[in-house]
Amino acid sequence: MKLTDRYGRVIKDLRISVTPRCNYDCLYCHPLGLEMTDPPGTVTVEDVAHFIQAGVLLGLESVRFTGGEPLVRKELPAMIAAARAAGVEDVAITTNATALKKRLPDLLAAGLTRVNISLDARDPEVFRALTRGGDVEDVWEGIEAALEAGLHPVKLNAVVIRGMNEGEVAPLAELTLDRPLHMRYIEYMHLNNAPFEEYRAQFVPGSEIKARVEAAFGKLEPVATDPSSPARVYRIPGAAGTVGFINPVSEPFCSNCSRLRLTSDKKLRPCLLTELEIDIAWAFAAERPVEALVDAILIATDRKPAYGNTLPTQRQRVMLGIGG
Ligand code: SAM
Questions:
Q1: What is the pLDDT of residue 66?
Q2: CATH number, domain containing residue 295
């Protein structure tokens, strides 16, 4: 079966945030300060298993675990295994990769199929400033471990912020020349409650990011992709990997959106860029949770808005708490 919303969009991808905790404090993601523990009510392995089973009954095809930082949850392998046991073939994580080298054997044994790794800069000082203290060497180890394990594709995500890392755009693209790495530049969304003027001054449109890559490496060659993919993908001529541009602000892709998000505190978020959240704790607590979660997913799908709000606005929940 295909789960279709009222605008005819097929919903097939689940994003599950497994924790509000993170070991990085990225300035574009949330205001300063981090949660140190998972609050009571945070999704358990059993909750995740039930939710994915419900999703599979409705035809959902892919699951991506995110956070916070998903690798801070020691139960992540059990969650991945639950997704595979439910019949999901595409099980991915979005991670800052600092613990990836150490955790990868367990994740692979559980059935992980793909990784997206956040890497906003190659320069250690720029990286440290953006992540408020991170060490880019730790991420490198994670990227190398993913490549050595033969994971494919290994995607790298960079949010480009004016005055911080626009000078890193070309060095990041260079990584794709001789390695099968897939660089994705993401436009900065106002999801961290930054002051509006500061946000506007720091926003860099995808067209400018692409122009920076082309100024360094020449005209990019288009690469065909799945139409539901938010990225416009290209290759530097002769490169082993690709570069892609995800432009939710300047070129919104709402009409192709195939996602539903579950937050770690059991809210369904049909759209990243609206405040609408549906509390589905009742469904997890029901006597027959999978059946109740099927209902919950149908309700959230029916309420999926046509468009998100990309304008700067005071958000009730910042990116860290939603899961990108
Ligand atoms: N901790 C993991 C990580 O670092 O990838 C997963 C969670 S993080 C919220 C998921 C993705 O959201 C990352 O690729 C991050 O760069 C992106 N992200 C966070 N805040 C963003 C913002 N304001 N605009 C665009 N992307 C953002």
A1: 97
A2: 3.20.20.70
